[in-house]
Amino acid sequence: MSSVRLENINKKFDDFLAVKDLSIHVKDGEFFSLLGPSGCGKTTTLRMIAGFETPSSGRILFEQRDVSHLRTQDRNVGMVFQNYALFPHMTVNGNVAFGLNARKVEKKDCVRRVKDALALVGLNGLGDRLVSALSGGQQQRVALARALVIEPDILLLDEPLSNLDAKLRVETREHIRSLQQRLGITTFYVTHDQDEALSQSDRLAVLIDGECAQIGTPFEVYHTPLNKNVMDFLGRAHFIAATLESAPNDRLAVRLSNSWIQTVDPHIPDMKVGSEVVCAFRPHEVEISGEETDDMPRARILDIIYTGAQEEIILQHNNHKFSAVRYCNNGINIYRKDQVVSFKIRSGAARIFPGD
Questions:
Q1: pLDDT tier at 59 (50, 70, 90 boundaries)?
Q2: Distance CA 38, CA 352 (A)
Q3: What are the residues whose beta carbons fall under 8 Å from the beta carbon of 315, sequence distance 6 or more?
Q4: Residue 262 in contact with residue 65, Cβ under 8 Å?
Q5: β-pairing, 57-62 with 65-66?
Q6: Does residue 155 have a pLDDT over 60?
Q7: Pick from 253, 248, 255: which is nearest to 263 by CA?
Q8: Pairwise CA distance, residues 123 & 172, whole Å
Q9: Span 4-229: which CATH code?
Q10: Strand pairing partners for 255?
Q11: For the chain, how long is the longest CA-to-CA vector?
């Protein structure tokens, strides 16, 4: 196994800078996700770790060894590609053994290791089948077995679940995480799916426009985003223009309308009273009530969207449109379209960022 350190990595394609001054330290045995929208540089970063691309500047270290310019075959990494990159004319055994054959592993040892790798991913007895006869989920596991059979120091996964249906994605990501914990292998996982990153990672990096916007545990990044872009990408959020006002006991309050003043805690430095800011909150942090109270603003229900266990209630307050998400209680809908309700943001849930 191995720790990985990226030091001031830049990657340029002609005049386009795909990765900008990226520095990350991933500990031995850590499950680390690279999360971000399409075109943010996450797959390019993974390919540099694998050796398929060379950094334009900066260093990649496995433990203390500089591998920045080593060939892929000299790095001992296993990689699962987004499209799996399996050979359809070959059997499962042939696909899994491909890397071992390239390393000239003795046949007897190769047979044993292929069998063990297939057992590890739950594909016992399928070695003689053509991969083209397998389901998408089984093909994904063949690709994972092929990456693991070479006993890599580092496992690299590039959007490995994107070709699976929703239910199978959940099952497979749980299997991958369980397997990674059992093996204790250092793992990089590239995804644009926040649920995958949050549910599996020890830590994650949010990449936006080739730059690292934030690194932290899933809890840290979700609940304390460093900027508006991170909060916007990682989960649903509403952003409403506001004015910063003072409040008692060293707290801050923002005014979103004449009747809506939102307390924000803790104090955020470098923002002066009267500054134009953005107040941010998530739909599940909005609480509503059919009772009218003096200390809560009012909003009209524009629509109610039923999603099974939950319902999303679309609200309008003055010119501000946002939503509240609540669990359905025994299938009883206590709210209706055009109803006027009181609302509030849960204490400590609202965040503020500099105004645009």
A1: very high
A2: 26
A3: 286, 288, 299, 300, 301, 302, 321, 322, 323, 324, 341, 343
A4: no
A5: antiparallel
A6: yes
A7: 253
A8: 13
A9: 3.40.50.300
A10: 243, 261
A11: 79
H-only helix segments in 34-165: 42-50, 92-102, 107-120, 136-148
On whether the CB atoms of residues 335 and 313 are closer than 8 A, the answer is yes
Q: How far apart are CA 42 and CA 49, in angstroms?
A: 11
Q: How many CA atoms are closer than 13 Å to the CA of 264, on its beta-carbon side?
A: 26
Taking the chain, what is the end-to-end CA distance rounded to the nearest angstrom? 45
Cα separation, 139 vs 168, in Å, equals: 12
Assess whether pLDDT exceeds 60 at residue 182. Answer: yes
Q: Angle at CA 181, nearest 5°, toward 179 and 182?
A: 65
Q: Which amino acid is at 275?
A: S
Residue 221 CA to residue 214 CA, distance in Å, equals: 7
Question: Which of the 8 DSSP states describes residue 222?
Answer: H
Tell whether the torsion through CA atoms of 291, 295, 301 and 304 is positive or negative: negative
Sheet holding 203-208, edge to edge: 77-80, 154-158, 186-191, 31-35, 203-208, 211-216
Pick the CATH number of 236-354 from 3.40.1170.60, 2.40.50.140, 2.60.120.260, 1.20.1050.80: 2.40.50.140
Amino acid sitting at position 310:
Q
Q: Which tens digit of pLDDT belongs to each residue from 264-287?
A: 865 565 778 888 999 999 999 999
DSSP class of 346: P
Reading the block at residue 93, the tokens are 């055994």
Q: Find where tokens 């599996």 sit.
A: 200
Burial of 309 (0-12, 13-18, 19+ CB in 10 A): exposed
**270 three-class SS:** coil
User: Domain residues of the chain, as ranges?
Assistant: 4-229, 236-354
How far is C-alpha 5 from the chain's CA centre? 20
Residue pair 145/118 in contact (Cβ under 8 Å)? The answer is: yes
